[in-house]
Amino acid sequence: MSKVNLHDLKARIEAANVYALAKRTPCELAPKLSLELGRNTWLKREDMQDVFSFKIRGATNRIAGLTDEERARGVCAASAGNHAQGVAAAGAYYNTAAVIFMPVTTPAIKVTAVESLGAETRLVGDNYDEACKAALDYAEETGAVFIHPFDETDVIAGQGTVGREILEQMPRTPDAVYVCTGGGGLVSGVGAWIKSVSPKTRIIAVEPKGAPTLATSLKAGVPTPLEKVDSFADGVAVKLIGTNTLEIAKLVVDEVVLVSNDEICAAVKDVFEATRTVVEPAGALALAGLIKHTRDGQAPEGDCVVTISGANVNFDRIGHMVERAELGAGEEMLFAAAIPERPGAFLNFCNAMGRRPVTEFNYRYAESEIAHVLVGIKTRDLDERAKVISDMASHDITVTDLSQDRLAKRHLRHMVGGRASADIPEVLFRFEFPERPGALTDFLVALDARWNISLFHYRNHGNSTGHVLCGFQVPNGDVDELEESLAKTGYPMAVETDSKAYEYFLRA
Predict the structure, then answer these.
(1) Degrees, nearest 5: CA angle 415-421-424
(2) Which of 236-240, 321-325, 370-374, 404-408 has the highest mean pLDDT?
(3) How many C-beta atoms surround the C-beta of residue 253 within 10 A?
(4) Is the pLDDT of residue 159 over 80?
């Protein structure tokens, strides 16, 4: 697609051959969500596809358009899972061999699903880009046809059938359509159809804050690779948006909304309560965008449609999403409170909290004057956090809101109470590494044995990225030398020694 022409793309969408495998999924009104958000909220249920994702549409249309000679050579693809299943299913239907390259961090449920559809899987690299390079190399070596997950016209046209169905199924023209966005295939296809038929309908792309590939490239005007991608919402964890999809997005996307991982988890919970379906983080992304827009007063007051797509989630990951959902929805507050070490102080503290349900309470004696308490409480919404702080202040209790503190949420709530000896200075680091077999062992082996570890915390949350919190004793103050040594591990790291959470609960 050398030059974008929405009229031509609309014609391609109209002619798209997707229904050999794809379903016309329902666009359902969600009564509870509509009431809570104060506007009619409709869910386009692409999680109800046989492969639980809209990706079946683009893959089917692309492979349906291959010649007999091309099908005989076989197809290949790179994917974190959903596109892979679409290619595998379409390959099986059209009797062409499919080889799928997937990052080693891909959830096992997606790998198994691809293999069950008859495709060969090859796990290569820690991210999509590394898997994609391997797939392209394979295509060059073997002659297999590479099926791009988002940046080919036939793929975009296939995804665009979602937009066509939305307008056909809605009782009235929607005011806005919120679309989960990674490489841009869905938002460009949906946007192309809807803007061609209903130009006044707003197209809102929703991305994770940790993977804002569309937002970054729109600002730059050209496809711009991200330096780092948060793989929490692995279905949209794309480092570089497509060239074609960006050009289409420039014409059809009215706004990009960025949401946090906690907000995504909260939306996963909302989807479950509305449909009794557990979707993966990327599957709830669009709803998270609408909820954020509503809270900020930016959402249209009329009919809003959100795409729900992606129900390929490992069971062991659900616990992590549940843990973060209430924080993201404003239904839990995590905070540190400083109270005097004297009789009656705890009673005063409890009176200040009122009858709010307590979800967590961590305390350990540290000094004779002041006690620091880590507390989690149930809250009705985000606004109540300010009321909690105000109530505490009226009882002369100083509170620090840690609900958005990464260190507190990820580590401290599981380990409050341990303090290192004050005799030797301690430096605290946070490390990230891919969750794959042997990754943690590799990290431990890479550490220089001459540095004494004073703190170590790791917990597997079912995420594609592992996190280690590690304290080191630095007797001679040679922190620079320590950092040089740790850099040799090859894992991304950040110093957390200045964290307020560390100061309150772990520092001597």
Answers:
(1) 125
(2) 236-240
(3) 23
(4) yes
Residue 410 to residue 141: CA distance in whole angstroms? 44
Architecture of domain 330-404: 2-Layer Sandwich (3.30)
- What is the SS3 string spanning 117-175? CCCEEEECCCCHHHHHHHHHHHHHHHCCEECCCCCCHHHHHHHHHHHHHHHHHCCCCCC
Predicted confidence (pLDDT) per residue in 98-139, tens digit: 999 998 877 777 888 899 999 999 999 877 778 899 999 999
Does 3.20.20.140 match the CATH number of domain 55-146?
Answer: no
Respond yes or no: is residue 55 known to be catalytic: yes
Check if the beta carbon of residue 158 is closer than 8 Å to that of residue 58: yes
Q: Considering 196, 309, 464, 499, which one is annotated as catalytic?
A: 309
Pairing of strands 493-495, 41-45: unpaired
What is the C-alpha to C-alpha distance for residues 181 and 26, in angstroms, rounded to an integer?
20
- Residue among 44, 55, 110, 195 flagged as catalytic: 55
Known catalytic residue at 309? yes
Tell the residue number behind the tokens 């988002």, with chain if given: 150
> Percentage of the chain with pLDDT > 90?
49
HEC letters along 336-369: EEEEECCCCHHHHHHHHHCCCCEEEEEECCCCCC
Specify whether the CB–CB gap between 169 and 222 falls below 8 A: no
User: What CATH number was assigned to the domain covering residues 6-53+153-318?
Assistant: 3.40.50.1100
How do residues 198-212 score in pLDDT, each as one tens digit? 999 999 999 999 999
- Give me the CATH code for the 419-505 domain, please: 3.40.1020.10
User: Per-residue pLDDT tens for 264-298?
Assistant: 988 998 898 899 888 888 999 999 999 999 999 99
pLDDT 10s digits, 331-385: 678 888 887 866 667 667 777 877 777 767 666 555 567 767 778 787 877 778 8
Q: Could you write out the DSSP letters of every residue in 238-303?
A: -SS--HHHHHHHHHH--EEEEE-HHHHHHHHHHHHHHHS----GGGGHHHHHHHHHHHTT-S-SS-
